[in-house]
């Protein structure tokens, strides 16, 4: 019986190859997208699930939103350690970056010597000794506990061992620096990609601390713990010890397994993912599968007349309705199974491009579980898509069919119209989404941020004391004379990232501002190099030696500052220019700041962050690491300048690795998830429109064949080609247009909700919805017209000669 079903299916495919190819291609595209998104979703959801007791581990975040900032991943370690006495807390892990260690203890030397060659340790964290209780780390060689409990001992990753020593097992090897040396105590396996942890070198927390460490703090709770209760206790404890505006701050606990989707802040180890991107992918894939299934239903119903006599003959020969349903479901399953095989081939071909777009390590593994899941999905889609056509076709009356009555009933017509309208609505919605996302990302790219993103090169993570020199700065001098370089300056702040320091001033009118007041420490030529827009006054210049910070015998520092317009206006100065030339005191009483200029407001960080009043000062950077910004000439060869700058930095600072990039690339990186969503929406929108066109093409071909005699008669009576085309297409245009109009309110609400995530956002213009609807209508007309013109150009005699 099954063999006969397949034999009949092959015969049906041969008789209507176009119908078969349209269904096969549609299902293949939909299934390939579904498999790819399933791989992506599984990968995203696997983040940090491999760690011990991952479901009970939380990271402590500090809430700076009362200051107008955001939630960040850092918190004070003493608060977490005090919670160890809490009955619902089992343990606490403390991690902090080695670069920030100088705030709490003696700084850790990262530049080391190996056999006479200089190298820099990569991704260095200091950690508490209980690290293995929180992180699934495979120790390949040596003793990790030794590295995390003894000074001068290090644990390095497998890749770092190969980079530094040329082999995997480097236990016992030493790294020298000016004041001493490090010994490799352990080598651990490289961390997998699907974790938010990033480190290649681990060291112990110093025994002697100047103040409690501030870094990444993780708590492991008991199984019956109440995270809200623990947070309340921690916040109460913190506020009791705090003074002033620090009492406004809060704390939150974020589950370890959710950190990947909540790691977009500036102090993360790794750029996190986006649950919205994943949800959009899943939603768009469901839409593609829905469109492919709708095409299958429509094409089968539209072609039912061709199978009517076959059904009538089978029924006359004794075939039961269940047998006929089985026959048509078998045909449906056959098409979907072939489509699944093609989809797997497409996925294998698409994975490299998908990994590049998503920056993930997806792979297609033909494990038993994966094959079973694919088979279940294929069978489910085949059954759902083929069930209604099978029920519909098998319900034909043998008497009516064989007597020549091929009326199909109103139900089939309504199903076809509803599903075609659904396709039209989905196409309009996706085109609108693509346009809105594109325009929003264009707004972000063109957003006035108060500094120049283009033609700027930035060299990051350089030792502050080496680059912040007013006189005889060989490094800055050599960078400035490079061909294509116009100017250079220092900066302690990554403008595309977040603020790193503040400056509180006492104004001439007696005002003492509260709240967050970011300050950027630069060198000379800050306005020119960073692209600030000067409103009044001048730039920092070596012609004015007093611009550079100087400290007198009493410990009072004097330096020059630039003020943003909003900062001056907050202090009560309607005309900020009147401050130029005046000297302000710092609220600490240890500094004097001479105002030399007023600049337009500067936005630090991504478009999601709030714009804050900013000051710019000269050479007061306290951070251990800072950056150099290079302004290059328009049209200059940036790649060559970056290579030459890298060589100069390596030679002058005796380091082996240099973190160098373009500021415009860093700005795009700050919005990587939004750009990803933009690309995905465009790709899926294009696929959805293609599948919709395929469905309309199939329906139009059946409609044209069914009405070819009517077309011939109209042509004999003098109808023009264009009138015949419009006759055949008007039903499709009306249905698709109505579907688009129904979809508009829903997509307007959804896109409005997404735009609310941005401080600066576009308005949803009516023309976007009009363009999307007209585009779908035009595509529909062109699709139908391609077949209608052929029918209109056919000679009536060829159609009517047998009448």
Automatic annotation (TrEMBL):
It is a multi-pass membrane protein. The chain crosses the membrane at residues 20-43, 276-297, 328-351, 371-397, 418-438, 680-705, 732-751, 766-789. Pfam families: FtsX (PF02687), MacB_PCD (PF12704). The keyword Membrane applies. InterPro entries: ABC3_permease_C, MacB_PCD, Macrolide_Exporter_MacB. Its main location: membrane. Keywords: Cell membrane, Membrane, Transmembrane, Transmembrane helix. Residues 283-396, 683-794 form the ABC3 transporter permease C-terminal domain. It is found in: Cell membrane. Residues 21-234, 481-647 form the MacB-like periplasmic core domain. PANTHER family: ABC-TYPE MACROLIDE FAMILY EXPORT SYSTEM PERMEASE COMPONENT 2, MEMBRANE COMPONENT OF TRANSPORTER-RELATED. This is ABC transporter permease. It comes from Pseudoalteromonas aurantia 208. The lineage of its organism: Bacteria, Pseudomonadati, Pseudomonadota, Gammaproteobacteria, Alteromonadales.
């Amino acid at each position: 019986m099954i063999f006969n079903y397949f034999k009949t299916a092959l015969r049906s495919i041969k008789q209507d190859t176009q119908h078969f190819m349209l269904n096969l291609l549609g299902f293949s595209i939909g299934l390939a997208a579904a498999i790819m998104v399933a791989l992506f979703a599984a990968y995203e959801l696997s983040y940090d699930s491999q760690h011990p007791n991952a479901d009970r581990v939380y990271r402590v975040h500090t809430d700076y939103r009362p200051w107008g900032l955001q939630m960040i991943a850092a918190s004070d370690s003493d608060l977490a350690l005090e919670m160890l006495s809490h009955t619902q807390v089992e343990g606490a892990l403390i991690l902090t970056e080695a670069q920030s260690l100088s705030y709490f203890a003696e700084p850790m030397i990262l530049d080391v010597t190996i056999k006479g060659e200089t190298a820099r340790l990569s991704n260095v964290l200091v950690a508490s000794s209980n690290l293995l209780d929180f992180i699934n780390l495979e120790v390949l060689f040596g003793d990790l506990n030794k590295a995390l409990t003894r000074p001068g001992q290090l644990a390095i990753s497998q890749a770092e061992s190969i980079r530094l020593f040329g082999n995997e097992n480097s236990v016992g090897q030493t790294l020298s620096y000016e004041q001493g040396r490090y010994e490799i105590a352990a080598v651990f396996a490289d961390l997998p990609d699907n974790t938010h942890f990033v480190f290649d070198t681990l060291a112990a927390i110093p025994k002697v601390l100047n103040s409690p460490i501030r870094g990444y703090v993780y708590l492991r709770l008991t199984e019956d713990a109440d995270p809200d209760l623990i947070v309340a206790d921690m916040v109460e404890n913190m506020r009791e010890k705090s003074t002033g505006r620090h009492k406004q701050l809060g704390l939150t606990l974020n589950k370890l397994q959710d950190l990947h989707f909540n790691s977009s802040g500036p102090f993360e180890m790794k750029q996190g993912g986006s649950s919205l991107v994943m949800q959009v992918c899943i939603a768009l894939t469901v839409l593609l599968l829905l469109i492919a299934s709708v095409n299958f239903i429509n094409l089968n119903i539209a072609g039912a007349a061709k199978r009517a006599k076959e059904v009538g003959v089978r029924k006359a020969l004794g075939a039961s309705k269940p047998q006929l349903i089985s026959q048509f479901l078998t045909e449906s399953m056959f098409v979907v199974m072939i489509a699944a095989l093609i989809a797997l081939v497409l996925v294998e071909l698409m994975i490299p491009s998908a990994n590049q777009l998503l920056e993930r390590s997806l792979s297609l593994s033909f494990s038993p579980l994966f094959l079973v899941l694919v088979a279940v999905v294929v069978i489910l889609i085949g059954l759902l898509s083929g069930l209604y056509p099978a029920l519909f076709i098998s319900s034909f009356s043998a008497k009516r069919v064989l007597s020549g009555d091929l009326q199909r009933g109103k139900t089939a017509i309504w199903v076809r119209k509803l599903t075609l309208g659904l396709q039209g609505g989905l196409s309009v919605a996706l085109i609108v989404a693509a346009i809105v996302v594109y325009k929003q990302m264009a707004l972000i790219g063109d957003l006035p941020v108060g500094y120049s993103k283009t033609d700027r090169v930035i060299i990051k993570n350089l030792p502050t004391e080496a680059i912040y020199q007013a006189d005889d700065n060989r490094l800055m001098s050599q960078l400035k004379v490079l061909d294509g370089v116009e100017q250079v300056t220092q900066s302690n702040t990554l403008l595309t990232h977040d603020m790193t320091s503040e400056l509180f001033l006492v104004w001439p009118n007696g005002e003492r501002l509260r709240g967050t007041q970011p300050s950027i420490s630069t060198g000379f030529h800050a306005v020119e190099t960073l692209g600030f827009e000067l409103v009044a006054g001048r730039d920092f210049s070596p012609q004015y030696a007093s611009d550079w910070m100087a400290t007198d015998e009493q410990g009072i520092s004097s330096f020059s500052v630039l003020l943003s317009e909003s900062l001056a206006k907050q202090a009560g100065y309607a005309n900020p220019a009147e401050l130029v030339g005046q000297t302000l005191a710092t609220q600490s009483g240890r500094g004097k700041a001479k105002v030399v200029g007023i600049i337009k407001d500067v936005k630090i960080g991504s478009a999601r962050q709030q714009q804050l009043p900013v000051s710019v000062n000269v050479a007061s950077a306290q951070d251990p690491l800072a950056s150099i910004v290079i302004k290059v000439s328009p049209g200059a060869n940036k790649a060559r300048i970056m290579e030459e700058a890298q060589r100069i930095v390596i030679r002058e600072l005796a380091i082996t690795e240099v973190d160098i990039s373009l500021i415009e690339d860093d700005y795009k990186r700050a919005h990587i998830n939004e750009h990803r969503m933009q690309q995905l929406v465009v790709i899926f929108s294009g696929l959805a429109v293609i599948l919709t066109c395929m469905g309309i093409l199939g329906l139009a071909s059946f409609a044209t064949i069914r009405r070819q005699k009517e077309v011939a008669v109209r042509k004999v009576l003098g109808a023009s080609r264009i009138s015949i085309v419009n006759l055949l297409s008007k039903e499709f245009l009306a249905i698709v247009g109505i579907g688009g109009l129904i979809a508009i309110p829903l997509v307007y609400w959804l896109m409005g909700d997404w735009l609310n995530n941005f401080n600066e956002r576009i308005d949803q213009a009516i023309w976007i919805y009009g363009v999307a609807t007209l585009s779908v209508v035009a595509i529909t007309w062109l699709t139908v017209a391609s077949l209608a013109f052929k029918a209109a150009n056919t000679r009536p005699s060829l159609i009517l000669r047998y009448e």
